[in-house]
Each structure stands twice: as structure tokens, then as C-alpha cells.
Amino acid sequence: MASSTVTPPRPDRPARPNLAFRHLRGHRSPAEFAALVRRAAREIGERVSCDARYIGRVEAGEIRCPNYAYERVFLHMFPGRTLTDLGFAPRASVRGRGARAPEDAPCAHTTRPERTTSDERNTAETGRAQQPYDTQDPYDTHHNDEESDVLRRAFMTGGGATMAAATLGPLGLAHDASAGRPVRRAGASEAGALEEAVRRIRLLDDRHGADGLYRRAAAPLRAAYALLDAGTTRQTTADRLHSGAGELAISVGWLAHDSGRFDDARSHYAEALATARMTGDQGLEAHAFCNTAFLARDAGRPREAVRAAQAAQRVARPLGSPRLMSLLALREAGGWAGLADRTGCEQALVRAQALYDRGPCDSDPEWMSFYGEAELEGLEAQCWSTLGDWPRAARHAKRAADLQDPHFSRNIALYTAELADDLARGGRPDEAAVAGMRVLDLLDQVQSSRIQTMLAGTARVLLPHRRAGGVSTFLERHASTPRMV
After folding, report:
1. Does the CA dihedral 159-162-166-172 come out positive or negative?
2. Which is higher by pLDDT, 242 or 230?
3. Sequence-ordered strand ranges (E) for 61-110
4. Which residues pair with 65 in a beta bridge?
5. What letter does residue 444 receive in the DSSP assignment?
């Protein structure tokens, strides 16, 4: 596939959009296409956890040639085509020729060690340079012998529990911030590392739940706000840092939320909201209000949930994302359900479905990649459960579990736990026990206090039915399952 006629890339040449790859995506959103890539990878035994941002980088021309794992997946998806047919440059023309982008050049008063060719080849992972050869997708945990990036090694060898602390560690930021020492002025490389921290936290939460991550996420968050205090010479970098710090605060807040630490979560969401309002970032503000509404519902403050969801919708309306508005309508529906207002809940659910049916668009925020039909069904199930309509809640919960991409173990466990509880409360103990056993099977992979709390509630409901088929087996196994501290 290599061609000797291809001119090697010039460091100062802007990326050319990959129109061929964009054409192959068709009418699918980047998130939907990324899901197809992940599915194709599983078919051939690869582990590439592609996301919407990766697809965007390919289409923008930032990734001129994919790594070998992605090459195998793309050629499997489009048999008979070569990388060149897919809009990529031949590997020989780009490999090892990464160069520092002008924006990534250090400030005049900053000194950094000289980087080696190996460093340059692998900087896409840390965001230190715009470079054309993709060594590894930030979501991918598949080892490749060509990867020598310190950040990748720390992430892989440390495992999920140490991910958050390792994410900013190679830049020396987390240590400096926690030690109270001044941090150098930030550049695009720091902004890139911050954005990667957010993505990795979201990925591992989707896969494994929040409990193992929350305590270790504090250091990157402190580092992020230390970077804001240190300042930057470029407004574009400052905007990225503020947005990244706000998104990281929301991600850490969600880890606290899902771990049952509601006061901590409320504090982190408020911090993100303040950051958004200081910089006029409507997208970040809508995200912060969205999570605040969800937290208020879970914390037993349904009226606050309604107000926060409505505030989020006012802020988000100009952003032009029907899918975002759909999710926010679901947040409002959850609040109305908590107030036992069936009419208000049903109206919000109808609005959420209608907005969802408009389909994805380029204005959909990156953080919403989790929001698909499975999540819509799961959130609707929670509404009907709160209203006490157990049969209807069970139908939606089962649909959510069936629709969920098997890649996201945490969500499968969550929806199945919802199903088990709805079945138990709806007078179907034997079916509830079967669903509960499926959740217990997933707890080796998933660490979520939310799910364990739901399952404990189901067990209490099933106690009077211990003689029903399978119930005693479930109760015994549940009782012997270790609880997370």
C-alpha cells in the first residue's frame, strides 16, 4: 500500500479532511459509527474502544494513518478496500515523522527536555503535538509493541484503579498541584492531557463503575485547577483548559454521585457550573445542570431536579442538539415522577421521545456518547418505577438491557438491576431472582454502590418469597457477595 510517489508530510502543513472516510460514515452520527467500529473489532478479536472524537479526528485529517489494530478493523469493515481507498496516507509516508504543532510550542520562559523520535511518534496519546500517525486510540486498552508512551504504560500497567492519578502524572502536574508548588504556565499539551483524563475516566466508569475510581480522581482535578491558576498565553488554550477542567469536575462529580457520595457530587457539579458561567460556556453549563438534576432526583429533592432540568433546557436550546434536549427532558421527567406528578412526567417523556427521534447531529456534545436508545429506555423505566407502575417499568428496563452495547458492563448491570427490582415489586419473584443473578455475575467487572444498593433493595423485597423458584439461591449468593467499602 506504500507508494514512493507520496511526498513526506511537512510539519507546517495543515491537516486535510478525510472526505473518503466521511463518505463511508454516511448518515450515521460519529458516535453511531464508532459503535459499528467497536462491533467490527469484536468480530475479529480486536479491542478498539473507538469513540466519536476518534472518528472526528480521522475525518478532520488529524490521523493520517491508523495504527495496526484499527487498520485490521477498517479493512474488515470495508473488504476489498485499501487504507488509501479509505482516505488514509500510506504508512511509510507518515510513520515516525510527527512534529510539534506551532500552538504546542512551549512559552519562552519554559524549559522542557528535548524529545526523541519515539516521543514524537507517540504524542497523539498525550495531546503534546498534532501528528499524523495514530499510535493508539485514547480509549483502546489493546497492547501494541510499538507503543512507548509513558502515559500509556502507566495506564495499562496500573489498571483501572490507578488510571486517574496516572493520567496527568507524566506531565508532573498532579504531584506539583498536590504539593502546593507553582505550576508552569499551561499550553496546548496540558489542555490535551486534561481532555484525555476526562475521556479515560468516562470510559472506565462505563466499563467498571465508579467506586474504584473516585478516590484517585482528586489529584487530576486539583491539577486541572492549578493549571487554570497558572494561566496561559493563548485564549484558545485558556478556553480549552476551562472547558476541560469543568468537564473533569463533572466526571469526578459523577464518580462521587454513583458511589453514593452525594454531598461531594453536589460540590463538584457546582464547581463545574461556576466555571461554565465565568467563561460563558453554554455547553458546559447545560452539562452541569443536567447532572445536578440527576443528583437532585437521586438525593430525594425532586422539585430541585425539575428546576435544574428546566434551567439546562433553557441554556441548551441555542446549541441545536435535539438529542441533548431529549436527555434533559428525561431529567425533568424524573423530577416530575419524584413529585408523583404523572401528567408532568408523561408530557416530559413524550417530549424526550420526540426529540430523540429527530436523530443525531454534529451539534451533539461529545460527553453524550452514552445516550442511545438503551439509556432512553432505562431512564423511562426509572420514571415508571418511581410512579409505582412496575409492569411498565419492567418492560422498559428489559428493553434497555437488551439494547445496551455489551461493551458497557456497568450499564447492563444497572438496567438489569432495575429490571430485577421492578419484577420483584411487581409480584414476579422468580423472574426477579433470575435477573438478580445476572447482576451478581457482572459484579466482578462492575464496582458501583448505586447498583449494589438497588440489588440490596431487591433482596429485601424478595425475602418473603424465598420459597419461590430460584429466590433462595439468589438470596444466598447475594448475602455472600462482598460489599464495597
Report:
1. negative
2. 242
3. none
4. 133
5. T
Cα 227 to chain centroid distance, Å, stands at: 23
Tell me how far apart the alpha carbons of residues 334 and 351 are, in angstroms, rounded to a whole number: 13
Distance CA 358, CA 312 (A): 19
Confidence band for 330, pLDDT divided at 50, 70 and 90:
very high
Listed in sequence order, the residues at least 6 apart from 93 whose beta carbon sits closer than 8 Å to its beta carbon are: 2, 3, 6, 7, 8, 9, 65
186 close to 110: Cβ distance less than 8 angstroms = no
Could you tell me if 173 and 104 are in contact, meaning their C-beta atoms sit under 8 angstroms apart?
no
Report the SS3 class of residue 65: strand
Residues whose CB is less than 8 angstroms from the CB of residue 302 and which lie 6 or more positions away in sequence, other chains included: 296, 334, 335, 336, 337, 338, 339
Give the span between the Cα atoms of 434 and 150, in whole angstroms: 44
Predicted TM-score of the model (pTM):
0.61
Q: Grid coordinates representing 437?
A: 443473578
Q: Which residues pair with 229 in a beta bridge?
A: none
Q: Under 8 Å CB-to-CB from 52, ≥6 apart: which residues?
A: 29, 30, 31, 34, 366, 369
| Residue 97 neighbours by CB under 8 Å, 6+ apart | 8, 9, 120, 131, 132, 133
Question: Closest by alpha carbon to 304, among 277, 258, 260, 269?
Answer: 269
**Buried-exposed string 337-363: b where 16+ CB fall within 10 A, e elsewhere:** bbeebeebbbebbebbeebbeeebeee
| Distance, CA of 216 to CA of 204 (rounded, Å) | 12
Q: Is the distance from CB of 224 to CB of 248 less than 8 angstroms?
A: yes
pLDDT digit string, tens, across residues 23-67: 888 888 888 888 899 888 888 887 777 888 889 889 888 888 888
In the numeric block, which cell numbers belong to residue 452?
449494589
Mean pLDDT on 105-121: 36
**What DSSP letter does each residue of 459-472 carry, written as one string?**
HHHHGGGTTSTTHH
pLDDT digits (tens, 9 = 90+) for 384-430: 999 999 999 999 999 999 999 887 788 899 999 999 999 999 999 99
Q: 269-294 in b/e burial notation, b at 16+ Cβ within 10 A?
A: bebbbebbeebebbbbbbbbbbbbbb
- What whole-number distance in Å separates Cα of residue 25 and Cα of residue 202? 24
Q: How far apart are CA 33 and CA 28, in angstroms?
A: 6
CA distance 309 to 288: 10
Spatial neighbors of 406 by CB under 8 A, at least 6 apart, are 412
Whether 440 contacts 454, CB under 8 Å? no
Per-residue cell: 33: 459509527
